[in-house]
Specification:
This protein is mostly helical and 314 residues long. It is built from 15 helices and no strands. The longest helix has 36 residues. The mean pLDDT is 82. It comes from Rhizobium multihospitium.
């Protein structure tokens, strides 16, 4: 187990290093002169004085060799200093932390909704594959996969806010503000969770130990609860971690439509405003956090399932 932990730590360190390089190079690969881009974002004018460009380049240390610039930026980042936003003049680390908290809340509630629906749907579908319930559940979940969030979100606003008047249409002002965007975000992962749960439970229910349990007099419900859930939930755990990592910065459409101050909206506005420090800080934080989440999920999977752990060791 210690060998596996060391391997994961080495992988995480290497990934962090690569991500830091990519984040640092954002202003250089985005096209144009990054110093000129900074001045244009500050003065709102496409034509800037060359003397001002040269002065700011020297002030920011961008006249130094690229590897020296990266070393300075990395040292500051390791101390928690991700720079100052061009758009609102606030420290990037504080803005990213607040946005990550919002996105993490939204993602957790969305995936909780998805699991609450997906696990019973997938389990009931697996009990009688090809039956009426299985067919209906498959049709509904496939529909949710096909329907885009940019259509579902306005429809939800029309129904729950304008027609029924039970939920706020936008903003982030309390628990009621979380429900509608979380429901919209939960539909697609719920569909995938249902399919994975169904496939896993079909394999589990056909295993010899399930047959043995039924032969001892346990009914199907008791067998599924006592013997099937633990093994059936493992593939969902891995998928859950992947969706959690993706939603932390990938729910741009929903956050913009519902005016939610999360990471997706933060990065969207950083692109619009050419806010390079915010793009760099947001990018590196999201990717590293995503790698950490998937690594922890992998370790939990190995801890829960001894067979997987043995496979890694050997």
């Amino acid at each position: 187990m210690m060998k596996i932990l060391l391997q994961r730590l080495a992988f995480l360190t290497a990934t962090t290093f690569v991500v830091s390089i990519l984040a640092f190079l954002v202003p250089y690969v985005s096209g144009g002169d990054p110093v000129r881009t900074i001045l244009q974002s500050r003065v709102g004018d496409l034509a800037v004085d060359q003397d001002a460009v040269d002065a700011l380049r020297m002030k920011l240390g961008l006249d130094r060799p690229l590897h020296e610039q990266y070393g300075i930026w990395l040292a500051d980042a390791l101390r928690g200093d991700l720079g100052i936003s061009f758009a609102n003049k606030m420290p990037v680390e504080g803005e990213v932390a607040r946005a990550l908290g919002v996105s993490a809340t939204l993602a957790a509630v969305s995936l909780a909704f998805a699991l609450l629906l997906a696990f019973p749907l997938g389990t009931l579908s697996a009990i009688r594959p090809g039956g009426r319930f299985d067919t209906a559940a498959t049709f509904v979940t496939q529909t949710f996969v096909a329907v885009p969030e940019y259509w579902m979100a306005p429809m939800a606003i029309l129904l729950f806010s304008l027609h029924l008047g039970v939920l706020p249409s936008a903003g982030w002002r309390g628990p009621s503000s979380v429900i509608m965007p979380a429901l919209v975000l939960s539909l697609r992962p719920m569909a995938y969770f249902t399919r994975v749960t169904r496939a896993a439970m079909i394999d589990v229910l056909s295993a010899p130990y399930i047959t043995a349990a039924l032969s001892r007099g346990l009914n199907m419900r008791q067998t599924v609860l006592h013997h099937g859930v633990r093994n059936g939930v493992m593939p969902v755990l891995t998928l859950f971690a992947m969706w959690l990592a993706g939603l932390l910065g990938g729910s741009v459409v929903v956050e913009v439509i519902f005016s939610i101050p999360g990471m997706g909206r933060l990065l969207y506005e950083a692109v619009i405003n050419k806010d390079i420090p915010m793009l760099q800080g947001g990018f590196v934080c999201i990717v590293i956090l995503s790698v950490v989440i998937t690594t922890v999920a992998d370790l939990l999977h190995m801890f829960i399932n001894p067979a997987v752990r043995a496979g890694h060791v050997h």
